[in-house]
Design brief:
By secondary structure, the protein is α/β, with parallel strands linked by helices. It contains seven helices and seven strands; from the N terminus they run ααβαββαβββαβαα. β1, α3 and β2 form a beta-alpha-beta unit.
Length: 210
């Protein structure tokens, strides 16, 4: 490989007799599958992958405020896909930068809410408590808080954190332990830590490492 060539990821064309399974995509079998998916989904149709994920999704949701076109949203979507969140909710501006999602938004359900009140009303209708994540005065350590199995974890704008509107509707506001000089950590990183905290309490750890 030359220095300026990118490595090929995934698998090339299927070798041998094609599988007699409707989940497989003839185009991918013929030409190869270079998508950003785990090997168990190689050559599967997109809709078959989503259907399989839907059968196993966790009952927690993730929401992020998007008032200033936060560049962390793509990262949040990608992490939500990795931890198999039920849905990602974007509150505020509908448009967001998909680059950081690495195409995982094709497999992750994303819902838009124009305002925090809309998100709150949806959560009430679904019977889901809203849990804010921010290192505000009076926040409870996420490391010791018993996260509900079904809930909505909400993250604020990178620059200002959770809005007052979210703080008012949140059942609890949780803070991530920090020990350095920075005032806060990146919103995408905070979302990953919070989702993993949920996994440690409720996830099937063995299945996650299979």
């Amino acid at each position: 490989m030359n220095a300026d060539e990118s490595p090929l990821h995934g698998l090339g064309p299927w070798e041998g007799v094609w599988p007699a399974d409707a989940r497989y995509d003839p185009e991918l079998l013929e030409h190869g599958d270079r998508r950003n998916v785990v090997d168990r989904y190689r050559y599967w149709r997109h809709e078959a992958i989503v259907a399989d994920l839907d059968s196993r999704r966790h009952p927690f949701h993730v929401a992020i405020e998007n008032w200033q076109h936060d560049l962390n949203i793509g990262s949040v979507v990608r992490t939500a896909n990795a931890f198999l969140a039920r849905e990602v909710h974007i509150v505020g501006n509908r448009r967001w930068n998909r680059r950081g999602a690495m195409v995982t938004d094709r497999y992750q359900h994303v819902r838009h809410h124009p305002t925090v009140d809309d998100l709150a009303a949806w959560a009430v209708a679904e019977g889901l408590p809203v849990i804010g994540i921010d290192n505000l005065p009076g926040s409870v350590p996420i490391e010791t808080y018993p996260l509900p199995r079904a809930c909505v974890l909400v993250f604020g704008q990178e620059s200002v954190g959770l809005s007052d509107a979210v703080r008012e509707v949140a059942e609890a506001t949780l803070a991530i332990a920090q020990y350095g000089s920075t005032r806060s950590i990146n919103a995408g990183a905070a979302a990953a830590i919070a989702m993993h905290a949920w996994v440690r309490q409720h996830g099937d750890i063995e299945a996650g490492h299979a």
